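Fold tokens
===========
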Amino acid sequence: MFKNYIKTAYRSLKSNSTFTILNMVSLVTGLLVIYLAISYLRFENSFDQFHEKSDQLYRVGRTQRTQDYAVVGFGNWSDASGENQVNQVQVIKDVAGINNATHFIVSNDLEYLNYRDIELEQNGILKTNTPASFTEMFSWKIIAGSFKTFAEVGNSVLINESTARKLTTGTLATLVNQPIQLAGETNTIAAIIEDVPVNSHFDFQIAVHQETVPYWGSNVYIELSKNTDATAIAQRIDQNILKVNPSLATNDTYKGHFIQKITDIHLKSNILYELKTPGNSTYIYIIGAFGALIILITLFNYANFTIALKTKQSKTIGVRKVLGASSTYIAIQFTVEAMMLVLAALPILILSLIVVVPLFNDFMKVALVSNPLLDLETFGLIVLISMIIAALASIIPTLLLATKNVLSLFKEKLSERKFEHFSLRKYIIVSQIAILIGVTSVSYFMYQQITYINGKDLGFQKEGVLFTFSSPENLDVFQDQLRSIPEVNFVGNGSSFGIEPFNQLEYKLEGLETIYDDSNQFYLDYAAIQAYNLKTTLSPAVFENPENRPNRNLINRSAAERFAQIKGVPIDDLIGTQIITEPTYQTESGDYGIPFTIDGFYEDINVFSLRESIKPYFITVSDRVRMGGMSIISYDFNLTESTVKKIQNLYAGLENPFPLEIEYLDQKFETLHAQDTKTAQLIFILNGIAILLASIGITGVTLLLIVGRTKEIGIRKVLGASVAQILKLSVKEYVTFVLIGLAISAPVAWWVTNLWLNNFAYSTDIQPLVFVVAAVMVLILSSIIVSIVSYKSATANPVNSLKTE
């Protein structure tokens, strides 16, 4: 019996190759997108779950003013000794309910790594003075060597596999216990570990065991005892930490500590000094919604094609019933055909995934399993979804045809089956059109926002500005040589732009008691002002005479407007007004705060990403400004390659302890919006796939309609209807479908677009006309498809059309 089902199904699919191919293309494409969407959502929600104790691991953060920090500052900040640092993490470890604690800092500054005659430029260097806890709490997979050596031997290192393979072509174990030079310091390789998984909220290539963490604070992680109430731990940390850092008790800016579950950090945290750019849950929801829409379109298409296919076989079904086939037999036959199509699609799907997933990984910077057979959980879910789609698609023709009696199957004419008025078909096509209008509109607004980001005037020169990082000891010599390069316009010192937000200042205006905490302080010399091409009220004469230039304190336009409103004076009258920053901080002389006088203004600038609104920014302009070994260089943007090569040659002529690092301001700003751009591009691609699937679906619906109206078309031609009139008749009802689809999709698309744009402080407007244009485009696309499909019947010999049943 089952063999007969298979044979009949195979013959049916083969004899109706057009429907089968369209159905196959739709199914494979839909399942491909569904697999990627599910795998991506699972990946984004899998961060840090590879640690064996992930349910017990938490990060400790600190709140200062109104901002949360991922870094916990030491008692003596950067001057804290190694002993003081270890004491601080120890008092946290001593809190009841905490099993273990570790702390570290990760630097992405380039350093030289030397091993024998090999020299590498290395970043991603983690430094910790709690090495035993670091390897006990986190689940790093060891390849060779010993964590015990790392814990017990000072200046020992863990090296990841990728770095280790750059040092030797032999067995990795041969590197263990070998000396290496890192940033000029001799270290011993304690162990080789596998690369940190991509779904980790922090990454490193080398971990160094050293006495002191070289920073003003550290990233602190704790392991809670099982069944410990996490909500009470932060309060206990606050109490214990005063033992090693009693100054916090009198620090008005200190608001307490908090803890974050390590598995929640990627999608539920976005605080200052994150170790890696976190994910965005809103974007995850949007991508998930698009995946769900693709599932619906795939289901609609499958149902349409199945109905169309079985409609053509109504008389065959009648014959089978005459020969004794029951309605159950026919229903099972429909289901077997649907399942066969799914089984035929799966090998094609597997091959498609093997090709597409690596491209997706590279595009989205994720690590989905490229061979679906190695991720049986996800692939099994896809098979289940495809089976459900097949089953649901089989139900409709079963209800329409398998349950009908023999007489109606032979007697009913296709034109009389009211397919033209069949409500389910209308629901399906309207749903597809609504989805098409909605995803096209959302995709357009996302594209428009990214275009807006890339083209927005940030208030400073973005192109033709780069930053170099050299040795502070050689900075003046290096900068003098840089100024000799013809392509270089200005070489300055000071704060970099295109950065993530950092800690804000408290301040108050002279004569007022209200304290604000929303400002940022920047430092630039006069050359940096020119390099950034900031628009200021500084006199041009000041720039022309570099001798003995006085320090100047500037505030941005937003700050000036706010202060003028508060004081009730014109903006120009603010010149000479004193601002007191950190008014609760007591200096050694006993005074409170650090005052400065407003000397001028500058136009607003977007120092951070466009997700951040412009707030009061203060700039201290002084030729004595130095930011380590960083230089701000403006140059001829059209000669970037030759300029960079000359800079590199100059640097090579100096003795510097670390490699030259170059950052481009425009690229830094693009990096701030890399996640936004990637998500928008992905949605744009998904939109294209949705259009493809919907087009296939519209083709299927039209084929179904034409099958039911072939005889009607023949009669109309006999009565004198032209081809154009027949095509117009076929297209006419799609106008109504599009109008209904527009009414359904516009509010939903508006809401989704708002959800996207709410991620930005500065964004484009939602123009209602876009929804109308999208609807018109969908109508044009539908009309073209319908006309092409209908043309064959419209031009056919009416005699043959009249013979059709």
In short: The CA atoms of residues 554 and 600 lie 5 Å apart.
